[in-house]
Amino acid sequence: MKRLFFFIVLLAGPAAWGLTDSTVAKVDSVQSYFTPVSDYEYIPGDTDYDLMADRLSCIEKEIPLNYNTRVAAFINYFAVKDREYTKMIIERKNVYFPIFEKYLKKYGLPDELKYLSIIESGLNPRAISRAGAVGLWQFMSFTGRHFDLHQDWYIDERMDPEKSTEAACRFLKQLYNMFGDWELAIAAYNTGPGNVRKAIRRSGYKKTFWQIYPHLYRETRSYLPQFVAMIYVLNYAEEHNFTEDNIKHRMETDTIMVKSYVHFETLANQLNLCTDDLSDLNPALKHKVLPEITKGYVLRLPAESKELFSADRDAILDSAGKVGRKELEYRARNSVGSTYGRDKIVYRVRSGDVLGKIAQRFKVRVSDIKKWNRLRGNTIRVGQRLNIWQKPGFEPAMVKNSAQKTMPIPKDAKTYVVQPGDTLWDISRKFNGLSIEKLKKMNKLQSNKIKPGQQLIIDG
Description:
This protein has about 450 residues and is mainly alpha-helical. It folds into five domains: about 1-40, no CATH class; about 50-240, Lysozyme (Orthogonal Bundle); about 255-335, no CATH class; about 345-390, LysM domain (Membrane-bound Lytic Murein Transglycosylase D, Chain A, Roll); about 400-460, Roll (Membrane-bound Lytic Murein Transglycosylase D, Chain A), CATH 3.10.350. The chain is about 45% helix and about 10% strand. The protein is built from 22 helices and eight strands. It has helices spanning about 1-10, 20-25, 30-35, 50-60, 70-80, 85-105, 115-120, 140-145, 160-180, 180-190, 195-200, 210, 220-235, 265-270, 275-280, 305-310, 315-320, 325-335, 355-360, 365-370, 425-430, 435-440; strands at about 255-260, 260-265, 290, 295-300, 345-350, 385-390, 415, 455-460. Strands 1-4 form a two-stranded antiparallel ribbon. The protein has a two-stranded antiparallel ribbon with strand order 2-3. Strands 5-6 form a two-stranded antiparallel ribbon. Helix 5 (about 70-80) packs across helix 13, helix 9 crosses helix 10 and helix 10 (about 180-190) crosses helix 13 (about 220-235). The longest helix is centred in the N-terminal third of the chain and has 24 residues, at about 85-105. The protein is flat, with a radius of gyration of 30 Å. The termini are far apart. About 25% of the residues are buried.
């Protein structure tokens, strides 16, 4: 920065910057202090509003690229203030853009949507947000599962570039079909279609992103302008003196179908590969191992390694299947928040509940419950729904109603065990001819309160 500063001083003159001749004279040799323009990074001060608008109009295709002060501010941020981030994106784009382009074409979507992943994740397939969104396209857990992205302790397909990109294309196509407008569809990708509809209602049923802009959440108001700004900067990178010196390219790969456990480091050694390279080709495998999968898993290898693997497949897989398996399985089952080999239920918090009591009831740890539900503290509220991952076949501790202690259940009576979240109304709906009043009468209940594990007579 000092070198650029003195170069400007020489052009404008010392007085223009409030500097005296004596201040400039303190530099031993100004000529030796700065280097020519070609040797340092010159940042063009191109802020002409009409020129920017014209440039955007020249590259606009199917998605509108509206130019305004919000977009201008983000162009300035990406092109001037945080050039290091933009350089990183330029270096990575050739690794992932071909994948994005392939699936966008498959689903008939605008090619410009490939820039959306930059705003989501900075083209980092292992990116994890504070809210728990994961991968290049930042899928939340529920949305990822909805679009068939498998998630467990070993595997998170939200980090798989191919599978997550196809899921994102399906999601974006759904959103466009909902709104018939790409700006609104992009906003909905960030905040959810419900929040966009809410903003539309609050605006008096206006029809464009910029008309409903004041009624959107702050993050979403910035989302589309960032998207437009990034399209501009990457298309006019040369005009802003960005060079393509360290461009990365995706390695040519081939695939193998594997059903057995594979330890990455051992496999890499067998194939004369770097473990990190093998891991980078398979980012969905979170712990540099492939678990045993009955239906098989498609593992990516460098193309030149496929022949070596095929020549001695059985011996290589045998070696890679012996290292660290027991230790990993132990970690998978016992690490905080692990869902490995467990079944999910949803528990609704009741009056008097605390995390310790709930953990004891389901024989899990408080730390597990907090991790599963992204709780920062121990505070929970009545009616709150908590995800609990139980071991298969486990039944929560029985909590009997006091009235039942004096009321034996007939041997031939049909019964129902209350599940977490059940209400009398829920149970009455499950069985024909069963009303809430009948349930209470048969079980001598004085109120509508029931508890998980409680046994109720439903016929008899």
